[in-house]
Amino acid sequence: MNRKSPPGTWSAVALAWAVCLGLSVAGPCLRVRADFQGSTHLVELETEALRYSKETPTGPVAELIRKIEAGKVTLEWDAKLGWLPSFQKALGVDPSSQTLVFSKTSLQREHIHPGNPRAIFFNDDIYLGYIPGSPLVEVSEVDPRLGGIFYVVEQKPTAKPVIKRIDNCLECHASSRTMGVPGHLFRSIETDRQGIVDLASGIEPVDHRTPMADRWGGWYVTGTHGPVQHRGNRMGDDFVKAKANPSLGGNKTRLDEYFDPSKYPSPGSDIVALMVLGHQVHLHNFIARVHYMAAQHLAAYGHVDYLKSPVEGLVKQLLMAEEVPLEYPVKGSQEFVRSFEASGPRDKQGRSLRQLDLQKHLFKHPCSFLIHAEAFRRLPAPLKQKIYRRMAEVLSGADTSEPFRRLSPADRVAVREILTETLEDLPPDWKCLTEPKTIQTIAPAKVLSDNSK
Predict the structure, then answer these.
(1) What is the mean pLDDT of the chain?
(2) Which range among 74-88, 136-150, 332-346 shows the weakest confidence by mean pLDDT?
């Protein structure tokens, strides 16, 4: 497989990759959250400990490439959608995960506009980008060790698809906006009626900490969410009109007033899928960041004792500690909800971290399903043990300080019971560590720099 983009079509559309998920534009209006001191600093990717461009990827796309080249897997060309349906099936990406972005934020921008949005499909490890009439399907994976790996597939009916890895998208996809490591982006920004972004309006990162009113500018959104507003389904002077009519563009269940949905595998851009997508994009970047840092620290010092601040930040993300609660119930595609909740492990009571709440919170149990993802599972053992022990302090009730105060005693019991039955590499004394403690408020862990104890 060619690691660099060859001349011609490939490099011309090397994209900043469409799973730039909404934006890969820079500028003074971009708001970047610092999850811990130094979290936006760029990581040197080509050290002996990391070797991003030299290491062979081991994620699902890399494995599919090997099977295609060995003749073990055959993909079929679809007359309407090209290679997309075969890739969805081969990589386990459900069409119901479809979300639609109409901002011109890809190097395939000439194909993107409100009448021809870019579709993003995803599962826990994979992102697929499809634009009707464009020359490429965009494929991205979260490699357990390397983070984001980016590929393109030419939309031509050949005997088998040629999947090419591209690294020149890292200008955007390994930046302060991805926590300094190869990763993905999900941004909200206003556009005009052609999909051209308005940088002066401000670029908002979107995850579970983002208020609903700031989410999804440049995206289509289908589903209901009560009277609370969001920035989706708006373009041009809609943003001015929305000051007098805050419900403008909200609670849409169909999108045929904007474009022809029959060009896509699914008719909508599901609000629940968008919420899950925002959560997992940032958390995957966080997991990749601490993996890179742990590899560097183990190589340099033989331990990860200096990573207290990143561990604290990651635990807050895993336990949804800073989630902005929903003001009103959210309802989206039942097909996506069924597909999403059906995956992943369950405990003896049938509980899963993938169960959705959608009344006050995204998830029923306040712990991310990505704790079961391969990227988390493959974190260096010394680092993971520190993460588990910090989580145990919170889940036992020994730490009810901010921001963990929102976790009720019942939440803590449910999460620790689910983790106990669904994770195989917990500390040997996990049950003892997570035994309910006398509830007390303890001082939060001191935020330290990356190079101090």
Answers:
(1) 87
(2) 136-150
What is the residue range of 389's domain?
278-433
Q: Which range (17-31, 107-121, 183-197, 246-260) has the least confidence?
A: 17-31
Tell me the three-class secondary structure of the chain, residue by residue: CCCCCCCCHHHHCCCCCHHHCCCCCCCCCECCCCCCCCCCCCCCCCCCCCCCCCCCCCCHHHHHHHHHHCCCCCCCCECCCECHHHHHHHHCCCHHHCEEECCCCCCCHHHCECCECEEEEECCCEEEEECCCCCEEEEEEEECCCEEEEEEEECCCCCCCCEEECCCCHHHHCCHHHCCCCCCCCEECCECCCCCECHHHCEEECCCCCCHHHCCCCEECECECCCCCCCCCCCCCHHHHHHHCCCCCCCCCCCCCCCCHHHCCCCCCEHHHHHHHHHHHHHHHHHHHHHHHHHHHHHHHCCCCCCHHHHHHHHHHHCCCCCCCCCCCCECCHHHHHHHHHCCCCCCCCCCCCCECCCCCCECCCCCHHHHCHHHHCCCHHHHHHHHHHHHHHHCCCCCCCCHHHCCHHHHHHHHHHHHHHCCCCCCCHHHHCCCCCCCCCCCCCCCCCCCC
- The answer to whether residue 443 scores a pLDDT higher than 80 is no
What backbone phi and psi angles, to 5 degrees, belong to 383? Answer: -70, -45
Residue 446 has pLDDT above 70, yes or no: no
Give yes or no: residues 313 and 359 share one domain. Answer: yes
The pLDDT assigned to 100 comes to: 98
Do residues 386 and 345 share a domain? yes
Kindly report, residue by residue over 82-104, the tens digit of the pLDDT. 999 999 999 999 999 999 999 99
| Global confidence as pTM | 0.88
Is 326 found in the same domain as 179?
no
Judge if 396 and 329 occupy the same domain. yes
Q: Are residues 249 and 118 in the same domain?
A: yes
| CA 216 to chain CA centroid, nearest Å | 14
Peptide bond into 6 cis (omega under 30): no
Q: Do the beta carbons of residue 403 and residue 321 sit within 8 Å?
A: yes
Whether pLDDT at 323 is above 50: yes
Do 139 and 87 touch, CB atoms closer than 8 A?
Answer: yes
Contact call for residues 77 and 83 (beta carbons, < 8 A): yes
